[in-house]
Amino acid sequence: MMRFGHRRIRPRAMVGGCGEDVAGERVVHGARVEPEMERETARLVIVDDHDLFRGGLRGILRVEPDFEVVGEARDGREGVEICRFLRPDVVLMDVHMPGMDGLEAAREIYRRGLAASIMMLTVYDDEAYMLEAFKVGASGYVLKQAPTEEISAAIRKILDGEFPLSQTMTTRLLKRLAAEMREQKIPIAPPNPLTRREIEVLRHLAQGKANRRIAEELFVSVGTVKNHVQKIIAKLEVSDRTQAAVRAIELGIISSGE
Q1: Residue 159 forms part of a structural domain
Q2: Does residue 77 lie within any of the structural domains?
Q3: Starting at the edge strand that comes first in sequence, how are the strands of the sheet with 67-73 ordered?
Q4: 59 and 129: one domain?
Q5: In 92, 121, 189, 227, which residue has its Cα 20 to 30 A from 155's Cα atom?
Q6: Could you give the CA distance from residue 213 to residue 211 in angstroms, rounded to a whole number?
């Protein structure tokens, strides 16, 4: 049985198992869905098999004016189903859950285009899980034991197009990815040459730094950094900044220790 956070919305007719109860709350296959807000906010879905953790996280995020928890799920399969109805901006996904786990659910959600971004939120501080999350397309990997403000900041980084990982976790992930690529001897076509400034920005990316911090250290605007990042991604023929750092390590443009 699915059970999600509920939201109050304007009355509407039943559609494919969706409807309203007598209190005016919308129910999606037994799922409760949180209230919609008039102001523009990031719509979040929490997918975790621990009721207490979901409740605590929901309470933390509710006080953030730019976040709206629109739904919850207790396992990956329920998460996929509620994303089909709600199309959230960010899914906060646990890794290990009964039935369909978070990695499989993330893969299915992305395959079906049901959410813009997925942030893995887990207790596992392990390169293997980070690697798998990265491979399925997760937009971030954050530990549950992180301070609440760090979790909120990570969500905002994802909304800004960044990949929230601590500097230590980024270095470990890049080393693991680079080692795996060398072991598999993956052929990589030579990229278009990077400029000196692009390589400088790339070194900062490999250290897990956010655009704002890179801008401060290079004495340029955040917009300039974003332009450099976009050019780096295009030249290295990858899809995001983390893959750009991995590709650069493989090509010897930078080292994993930088």
Answers
A1: yes
A2: yes
A3: 67-73, 42-47, 90-93, 117-122, 140-143
A4: yes
A5: 227
A6: 6
